[in-house]
Amino acid sequence: QVQLVESGGGLVQAGGSLRLSCAVSGRTFNTYNMGWFRQAPGKEREFVAAINKSAGNTYAADSVKGRFTIARDNAKNTAYLQMNSLKPEDTAVYYCAASSRGYRDSSSYTYWGQGTQVTVSS
C-alpha cells in the first residue's frame, strides 16, 4: 500500500512563497511519476505540475509556469512543489498523487494524498 502525506501549506501574502512536500511510504517511490493538483472552492480539480520517475522531465500548467517548480528526491521518497510569486488565484487545496503511466490527466493517478490548504491573501 502506498500512502502520500502532504505538508507545507498555509497562509501567505501575494508575492510570497511556499514549499509543499509530499512524503510517500513504501519502497516503490521511484517507479511512480509524481504530480501536484489543486482544487479551489466551486471548481474542478486541475493539474499543476508533474515529474517523471527519474526527475529527468517536468511538466507544468501554463498558469504556474515560471512561478512553480516541481522536484523529487528519490532517496527521501519525497516530492516537492516550490511556489513563488503566489497570487490570490492560487488559493486552493493542493494534492500530490502518484501515477505509473500519466502526467497531466488526473485519472491516470492511482494514489492520492489528503491535501494541504494554501491560502494567498491580497
**H/E order of the elements?**
EEEEEEEEEEE
Largest sheet: 7 strands, mixed
Gyration radius, in Å: 13 Å
How many DSSP E strands?
Answer: 11
The N- and C-terminal alpha carbons lie at a distance of 40 Å
Unreliable stretches covering 5 or more consecutive residues? none
- Beta-strand share of residues: over 45%
Average per-residue pLDDT, rounded, comes to 96
Structural class: mainly beta
Q: Helical amount among residues, as a percent range?
A: under 10%
* Count of helical regions: 0
Shape: globular
Structure overview:
The strands form two sheets. Strands 2, 4, 5, 6, 9, 10 and 11 form a seven-stranded mixed sheet that branches. The protein has a four-stranded antiparallel sheet with strand order 1-3-8-7, with no helix packed on it. The protein is mostly beta strands and 122 residues long. Strand 4 (33-39) and strand 5 (46-51) form a beta hairpin. The chain contains no helices and eleven strands.
What's the short story on this structure?
This protein has 122 residues and is an all-beta fold. The protein contains no helices and eleven strands. Helix content is 0%, strand content 48%.
